[in-house]
Amino acid sequence: MKYDPNMRPNEATGDGLRWYCPLEQPFEVSGLAWFREEQKYRRLPTLPPGVVPKAVDHLANHPAGGQIRFLSDSASLSVRVKLKDKANMVHMPATGQCGVDCYVGAPDTVVPLQYVNTTKYDVTLKEYECALFTNWKPVKRYIVLNLPLYQGVEEIEVGLDEGAAVVAPPSYASAKRVVIYGTSITQGGCASRPGMVYTNILSRRIPLEFINLGFSGSGKGEPEVAEVIAKISDPACLVVDYEGNCVSTELFRQTLPEFIRIYRAAHPLTPILIVSRIRYAREELTPHLYEMRMERKRFEQTLVGELREQGDLNIYFFDASKSLGGEDFFECTVDGSHPTDLGFLRMADAIEPVLKTLLL
Known about the structure:
alpha/beta, GxDLY, Hydrolase, SGNH_hydro_sf
């Protein structure tokens, strides 16, 4: 089959490259809170305290938000990736589910960054090798590789020109980390490539490490998960955005206060931002969806107000109902609920100033 040259799978250009394991210095893997201890591309500890839901434990193997960071003057860059399974989603591109994308920036700062390329490969395979750039000028660059959103990664290697310098990446503005807990949308469904999930977009605008703890269909505010999240050290902020998975308003009324209580016991002063869910495209056609969203939003607002009256002045509410925009908000999803890249960009635009107020 003939393709536009830009639509073909990336060529493998292993000749003349030296292959590196990102587990080794000076590479840095960020966005995975337990990586330093366990050296695994996983979003939760292998043996979490207590028993987390089986689905959450499985989805933790998808390294959404994980990033490989380094500086290099290499004129070429390739990656070799060994996935846990093949691409298998019907409404999300393999480039988002299983791909790696690349951004570059100035060598002395972590923001902003410029998109370069995404791995395009034979989606019937579990292993692939792709070039992300070749024959560039050999000048020092800050390089960020965003890891797959919806598939596990067993191994990944970075191929750079033989003799190219490789040094540690620039530091974040502080050691504190932004932790975002939520749903399939938080995990990245259905971005066309990893860099377009809204947590990764925000990481290119705010010079802090972002921890993505979105669990597709399974982030339901369980106390066992709250206990694990509370173990993450140096939180700059906790964003709680699991309303879309709450099953029922009654259950939400039970889980959210307890989730906050557990986290607050471990982090009494950390800012907590409670986020209501985005609008579904079909809400105007099926009014009960609108009524449920409004009921839950009122509950979130009331809960935050009560906690603030009780003295917790570091908890806040963010109304995300307008995050996808105005009259054309329904054009921002793949299936009526999961955002496209446009939807994720608008979500990031909406919450960015709020986070900056809390963080910077």
